[in-house]
Every structure is written in structure tokens, then in C-alpha cells.
Amino acid sequence: MAKMTPIRSQYLRIKKAYPGAIVLFRLGDFYETFDEDAKLAARELEITLTSREMGKGLRVPLAGIPYHALDGYLAKLVSKGYKVAICEQMTPASGRGLVAREVVRVVTPGTVVETALLQGKANNYLAAVVAEADEAGLAYVDITTSEFATTQLPSSSLALELGRLQPAEVIVPEGFDSPDLLPFALTRLEGRWFDVETARQRLLDHFQAATLEGYGCAHLPLAIRAAGAILHYLEGTQKPALGQLGRLTTYTTQSFMVLDAHTRNNLELFQGSRWGTATGSLLSVIDLTRTAMGGRLLRRWLGQPLLNLEELVQRQDAIHWFYAHAMPRARVMSLLGQVADLERLINRVRGNIASPRELISLCRGLELIPEIMKNLDSAPEELKPCPETVELIHRAIAEAPGASPGEGTVIKAGFSAELDELRELARNAKAYLANLERQERERTGIKSLKVGYNKVFGYYIEVSRPNLPQVPADYIRKQTLTEAERFFTPQLKEYESAILNAQERINELETNLFRQVCQQVASQGERILASARALAWLDVVASLAEVAVRYGYTRPRLTHGDEIIIRGGRHPVVERFLGEGEFIPNDTYLSNKDAQLIILTGPNMSGKSTYIRQVALIVLLAQIGSFVPAQEATIGLVDRIFTRVGLRDDIPAGQSTFMVEMVETAHILNNATPRSLVILDEIGRGTSTYDGISIAQAVAEYIHNHPHLGTKTLFATHYHELTGLAAMLPRVKNFNVAVAEEGGKVVFLHKIIPGGSDRSYGIHVAQLAGLPRSVVYRAQEVLSQLEADRQHKPSPKPPPALQLPLLGPGSPILEELQRLDIDSMTPLEAITKLYELQRKARESQA
Ligand SMILES: Nc1ncnc2c1ncn2[C@@H]1O[C@H](COP(=O)(O)OP(=O)(O)O)[C@@H](O)[C@H]1O
Ligand SMILES: [Mg+2]
Fold this sequence. Notes:
Helix content: 40-55%
CATH architecture of the largest domain: 3-Layer(aba) Sandwich
Low-confidence stretches: 649-653, 793-806
Mean pLDDT: 87
Radius of gyration: 36 Å
Largest sheet: 7 strands, mixed
CATH topology of the largest domain: Rossmann fold
Structural class: alpha/beta
Bound molecules: adenosine-5'-diphosphate, magnesium ion
Shape: elongated
């Protein structure tokens, strides 16, 4: 085997310890990658792949990036899902012996701290998940903001909670698999790090606590296991972050309204333009926050609507104060606009990675706190000015410091006597050298004599070739150029070393002083963090008040009752895309007692989908504490919003898509409670018309009749056949979207009125869409023909369960009985079927 160089063996040893990561190996001014890593880096980063001799007859592939360009390349690799171990030189290169090298951190999607890799208004979560039987533990952390939380929840809710958090990375024990994890970047850890005793001990050590009682998770083993695994993982990847995790919150998912992924998407809470139309998300409309931390908080509020009335009223009160006080609102918002991301900044300071400029931004932000407080009647308790910190930074750090300490431009004059002295020394020596040129010209009579400096040779006196004969005897030759000679004198040498020494000591001292200042600021970290969070809260509250004023929202009345009453409600997003006054407001009355299920019919494009979503959005806004787009509203708190949206017209219906639709519908029917709100938009569309109508109707009947449901439901459909239900089921109400005809053309009024629509306006829509007049005319002819035919023939399959005697011809129970193949059933199947038929018979009579 070829004999390898010491560096090569060092590299291989380190690489072996980080098998899952790309190792960036610091070699002087470069981070190098070797072997397979090099090939991968060359491909992904579009850098050159070369090779390097690392032993006799041993050439290995190599690709490198300059050290100062690390961030950009790191961003690329991490965003592509790679993990990157950064291996630094731990001792200065002395030219003799091997430089010590160590991996200082492993950058993974969930542990990035580089500002360039983070989104300002979104959190970057690292989550850990562990499950046992039906229970799961889920912990998450955002190391850029020190948010650290854990919970224990039913395994079936795991997908929901992960969906809400959208973690950048999820840690799971080896061998743990679940379809819920598919959408996420997974990191597998050895199972023992999830062991409950190991995890508990790690948490206790970390918080230096004797019990986890105070953290609320002492009796939640799965929550402990997940949280402990996170700490273990950070230890190995991003150790400095550990020091900043001062708090662990245990929370329960039961205190929040459940919003599943369908609902988040269908209601376009965070992402709009699902259908390629130019509509925005709800968040984009209500987010007038001025700080990144406020933006993150609002996003969290919207993802976790509350169920607790008192908490909601507190938010409402705060919003109301800003709503009613225009001047302070404007002042506070404009001040907040000047506040940097204090939450992340203080974390960078505590993690020892803040730059001098970031310290200045932190200081500017803190300075504004008293200003902001002046504009408030009562400030949040956690909001505290930090005058000592502000004063310290002012005293220590230059107004416009250099990018990093050690260049002599960071620490202010007057902060350190020692530093001032050194600077004075360097200044004097420089002044001496500046004079030296004039002096030496006079002394030697050489007009073109120059004093200069370069990195390799230091200070020198340069004399051009023709003048060399005039050089005095005390000049000592240093360097020969083609056109000139360079010299030094003993005196010059002396000043040179004075300057260089001073410079070196200045840099060293400045770096140390900067670290000290950072440490002092970090010692106030908890207080600053608390203030940062209070500012974020103010930002959200003021911004929601601003939304309310700007867009005409009102404060809803929240109750524990089961009514939803909205007068003059509007769709918060759609109205923003229409001109002033163009959006037609509509009323809503839903109640478990007498108006539980609204069937909304109307032609395409009349506004059905908009209306039913607007009701859901108003409820949702009310339950984050916000005001709502309505003239007035009373909202009985809802535990969950379900939405099911049938296929769009342009996706060809197939068995499988229909299956998906039915599975989702089944999910609603199985999970809704009387306190839920269900939004059904055109369900049953993914199949033939008659199947569709039958299923839609059966679903509506089930929601209406099932003793455990009685769920408030809005059902938009273009099957006007369904309007017949209202006559059968007492709590079903028909509504339709008013349409006017003017000169043979349809005009959509977007007004929701009682009663069912009984006509299809499809042909008129075709006309609106610009189909040739002759086609529209012919369509009208065909329609009249069809309608005439229908009056003579019975429809091919009457809508089931309606107006039919229980066991008379056409009854579904009878049909089912007729179809049964009793010979092929086991006795158990037979008796089960019998029970089922009996239940159906009873239900349809009830
Ligand atoms: N209340 C309203 N006021 C004004 N325009 C509306 C209203 N509701 C809907 N619209 C407009 O009508 C369009 C179609 O609405 P949509 O709800 O998709 O109809 P449908 O579901 O009945 O096909 C919307 O994009 C919007 O521009
Ligand atoms: Mg629609």
C-alpha cells in the first residue's frame, strides 16, 4: 500500500467520524473536499475537480472553495439536503509539524445559523419524533431564536403537528418509519439517544435541575425522549446553540384549534395562488408586521388558533387599544420598523457569532424600547429597556465598525486606555515615517526617493537606479528590482517593528475587548430575549389593529355557544383583489339548533366557493384574536375546521382521484364533533353525475342525522337536486347566489339569498366566456329538448333515500337486500350485515 502523508491520515480519521456528512477540511485559505466528497462538491457547486498527491504514488480527487466564500457554498449544499461538517485548523500553521484540526460544527438543515440561509419571517425548526403504540413525542427547537418546546400527542395527530411546524429537519430513532415523515428531511439517530432515562438525565444536566416538574413534562416520557434526543443532536452538530436554550416549554395540542394540511391549503392560509390565479394568502393580507420576529409570531398565531376564550379576549383587548389609538399605533409601528431582529441577534451574541455591526443593530433596537414604551398606556411586563447594555455598546463599539474585530476599527477610542496607548504609538510611528521621506530626500538630495511598505518586506526606502550613487553609507540593501533598489536603515527597522508590534497588539486586544463586550451583553441575554419577544407581540397586535382600521374589520363577539352569526361578512383575501366597494358582503347564520347545514347552490363563478371560505376565514381570524372582515360577528368557538374541496373542473375525473376525495370525506365524517365547522365545496364531483349527487346527499344526511355530529356545515354544490333535502331535514337550509338576467345575459350579483336555485346557468356562462353566438343558440335548443324529454321519462335512477317509503320500491335498504349474496357470506358477516341494515332502517325513520 502507498504510504500516505500525515494530513491524509488526519483527514481520513476525521472523515470516518462524520460518515453522513460532507467534510470541508480547512487547508490554509481553502476548505478542501476529497474523494467522493470532492466529486459530489464539484458537481453540486460547479467547482473544479482536481487531484492532489497525498503520499507516494497516491493521488486523490480534490475540490476546494476559498474560505471567505464559505457561506454561499454552504447555503447551496444545505438547501440541497446535504449535511456539512466544517473542520477548522485549531493551531496556527507554524511550518513544522501537523496543524491540529477539528470539526467545529455540522451544518444541517435544522441547525443553520447563517443569516443568508434563513427566512426572516419564518422559523427554522429542528424537530425530533419518537412513537410508541398510539402515542408519540414531538419536540422542536429553533436555535436562532431559542424556542424549545415539547409535547406528547396521539400518533394520529403527529402529521398534523409536523405539518404546522414545517420543520427543516426531523430526527427519528433508527428503524422508525411512518408515512407522516415522508415530506421531511430525516436524520436517523441511534435508538439509545431516545432512551427515556438517557434523555431525562440529559435534560436535567442541561437545565441543571433536579426534576423536570417545573418544565411540565416530568410525567410525559415520550415528550422527554424527543427533547433529550434534540439536545444530544445539537451537542454533536451545533454545540454553541446549547448554551442558549434556557427554557423548555411543554405544550398540548389540545389547547389549539386543529387545522389539517387540507384546510391550510384549501383556505390558502400561508400560500396563495394555488390555482395559478393572482390571489395572495391570508397571511400576506394580514401581515403588516414591521419586524421579522413579529412576522414569525403572527405566522405561529395563524397556525395555532386558540380555543381559550379568556386568552382570545386578552388579545382582542390589546388589538382594540391600538385600534382606538391611531397616533400611538402609527408611532409604535414606525419605531418597530427601525428595530432589527433582536430575537435572532441576541442569540448570535450568545452563540459568540455576532459581528460588530450586528451588535450595533442590537443596540439601536434596544435604544428604541423606551421610545416605544412612551407611546403605550401599559407596556407588556416583559418589555424592559436595557440601558446598561445600550450604554456599554455605545461606549465600546464604533458607530460604523469594520466587518470583524481585529482590524482596529471596531472598538471606540476612550474605551480602553491600553488600546488608546497602542494606537497613539502606532500613529506616532506612522507620522514619523511620513516625515521620513521628506527628511531623507533632503539628506540625500534624491528627489525621487520614496518610503513604502509591502507585506513581505515591510517598510523600505526605494531609490531608482540612476540615483544609486548618491545612496548614503548607512543604507542597508533589502531588495533589488529592475528599475530600483530598496533599502532600510536601523532606525527605520526600529520604527517598523514598533508599528507592526503595535498593530498586532491592537488587533489582538481589540478582538479580546470585542469578545468581552459580547459576553457582557450575553449576560443580559434572557432579559433582552424577553424584551424581543414582547416587541414581537406588540408588533403583531399593532399590525392586526392596523389591518382592522385599514380594511374595515370589526371586533367579533366570542362565545361558548354554538351559533355563528355574521352580518356583512367579506372574504379577506378576495376583497383585496377587487376595487373599493366591489366585493359584495353577505350574512351568515349557522346554529346547531336550527341552521346546521347550509346548502348553497348557484351557477359556476357566482361566488359559492368564495362565500363558504369566507365564513371559515372569519371564524379563523376570530380565533387568533383578530378583528374580522364583517360589519358584526358573533362566533361560537369552533374546535376544528374541516374543508373538503372537490375536483376542479379541468382535472379529468378518474377512479383514483375520486377515491382520494372519498377518503378525505370519510376522514371528516369520522373526526368532526358538534363544535366543528365543515366546509364542503362541490364534493361528489369526481364521479358520474348520479353517483356524485347520491354521495353528496348521503354525506349531507349523515352530517345532519348522526347523533354525534350535528356539525355546522356549509356545502356548496352545483347539483341543484340537493336543494330537495331542506324539505326532509329540519336543520338544512337552502341558499343560492342571486343572479340577474339582463338582455339575455347573466349577471352575477354575488348576493347570497335564501332558497335553492333551480336552474343551471351553464349556457349563459358559456356565452359570457365568449363562445360563438351560434353555439350558444344551439345549446339552448338542445337544453330545451332535454328538459322536455325529462318530463316524460322517469330519471334513470331516482335520487336515493328521498321521498321514498322505507321498504318501498327504490329504497336503498331494499336494494341492498336484493343485492346480497347470502350464500357467499359467513354467519358472522351475515349477522353484521343484519345489524347494519337494522341501524339504517332506524336512522332513516328517526
Ligand atoms: N361576494 C363577492 N363580491 C364580489 N365578487 C365576488 C364575490 N364572490 C365571488 N366573487 C368573484 O367571483 C369569482 C368566482 O367566485 P367563486 O367563489 O370561485 O365562484 P363559484 O365557486 O360559485 O364557482 C371570484 O373569483 C370573485 O372574483
Ligand atoms: Mg367554486
